[in-house]
Amino acid sequence: MHLFRLFVTAAVTSTHVRAEPGILQEISSLKSSNSSLLRYPTQFTQGIIPKAIHSHNDYWREVPLLTALSYGVASVEADVWLVNETLYVGHEIEALTRDRTFDALYVQPLVEIISAQNPDTEFTINGSSVNGVFDTSSGTPLQLLVDIKTDGEKTFPFVLQALEPLRRRGYLTTFSNGTLKTSTVTVVGTGNTPLDSVKASLPRDFFYDAPLAELNSTSEKWDNTLSPIASTDYSLAVAWSGIGNITEDQLANLNRLLQEAHSLGIKARFWDTPGWPSSARNSVWRQLAESGADWLNADDLQAASAF
Ligand SMILES: *[C@@H]1O[C@H](CO)[C@@H](O)[C@H](O)[C@H]1NC(C)=O
Ligand SMILES: *[C@@H]1O[C@H](CO)[C@@H](O)[C@H](O)[C@H]1NC(C)=O
Ligand SMILES: *[C@@H]1O[C@H](CO)[C@@H](O)[C@H](O)[C@H]1NC(C)=O
Ligand SMILES: *[C@@H]1O[C@H](CO)[C@@H](O)[C@H](O)[C@H]1NC(C)=O
Ligand SMILES: *[C@@H]1O[C@H](CO)[C@@H](O)[C@H](O)[C@H]1NC(C)=O
Ligand SMILES: *[C@@H]1O[C@H](CO)[C@@H](O)[C@H](O)[C@H]1NC(C)=O
Description:
- The chain is of the alpha/beta class.
- The chain has helices at residues 2-13, 22-33, 66-70, 102-117, 152-162, 164-168, 195-200, 234-237, 248-263, 278-291, 301-306; strands spanning 51-55, 73-83, 86-89, 142-148, 174-176, 179-181, 185-191, 207-208, 210-211, 229-233, 267-271, 296-298.
- Strands 1, 2, 3, 4, 7, 8 and 12 form a 7-stranded mixed sheet that branches.
- Strand 1, helix 3 and strand 2 (73-83) form a beta-alpha-beta unit.
- It is globular and about 75 Å long.
- The protein binds 2-acetamido-2-deoxy-beta-D-glucopyranose (6 copies).
């Protein structure tokens, strides 16, 4: 479109009369014909490349979930509160409203998007695979981090129940009978998520965000059938501000944590990385990427996706 406009402008201002190349005429005539040949069915995220970015407190954005997907962000986080048997989403209790439920902001939009990416047609009738949210990479799952804010034991069954529309359609990554089967959405609990309940749930389609700084200092045997991801507070675990040079100790801590996670097949995420100044933020992101951190935790999705 842009190219076409450029060409037209050039043709008009040029002293020579130039014919429009046939190929551009063909393109514009096809576009104006509303031809069924141009109707691509699974175009919701057409051309968007998924990126290993985690949308920290995703519900803060003007349009939760969709904004993250539009940048290709492959992990989003929702803080959930159980009030009167309903799950609401917000950073603190003062931020809750009747309309902003976990179901309305995350579960139903995901059902709609993934259903649209998996139309029932005469071509898919024998198919068993399910496409994910990203059309360019249909096998890339979306990670949905659920940060339970209210009592873990009480809230847990409600979260499992809330995921039923996704579970029923086979959209959830599931560990069953010794096998991890990746599907379109991998749900991971954090915050007050009760570890024992997650471990006891088999088949398991709600996983546990492991403590990255304690992977081999606790009696727990961590692995990726329980914890696809492990996280820790960057400001405590590494603490380099991004200004000046990282110290040897800081770098050694960073690399050790990553090695411990990776040796268990677990992906690593550092939260509370510096957000400002942006040069410091970028230096930290660069170091994390160089050292092999799997997820870039980001508040500014535009900056992270352009990084
Ligand atoms: C294009 O075709 C589709 C399918 O037949 C139809 O729903 C739509 O209204 C058409 N759009 C225009 C602009 O004619
Ligand atoms: C919770 O339920 C009680 C009793 O029915 C009601 O008075 C209260 O307004 C409810 N609160 C919310 C946030 O729904
Ligand atoms: C689906 O399977 C049936 C039975 O094997 C076969 O006749 C049909 O051609 C298959 N359709 C497609 C789209 O593969
Ligand atoms: C679970 O695994 C066992 C041993 O591999 C097998 O015998 C059994 O059929 C499996 N059950 C299901 C439901 O897949
Ligand atoms: C940072 O490291 C570089 C390369 O090792 C060195 O040239 C520079 O002097 C160091 N800067 C500071 C402030 O220590
Ligand atoms: C921790 O994990 C690393 C990486 O696999 C391993 O080399 C090291 O021996 C472990 N340390 C302890 C104390 O288990």
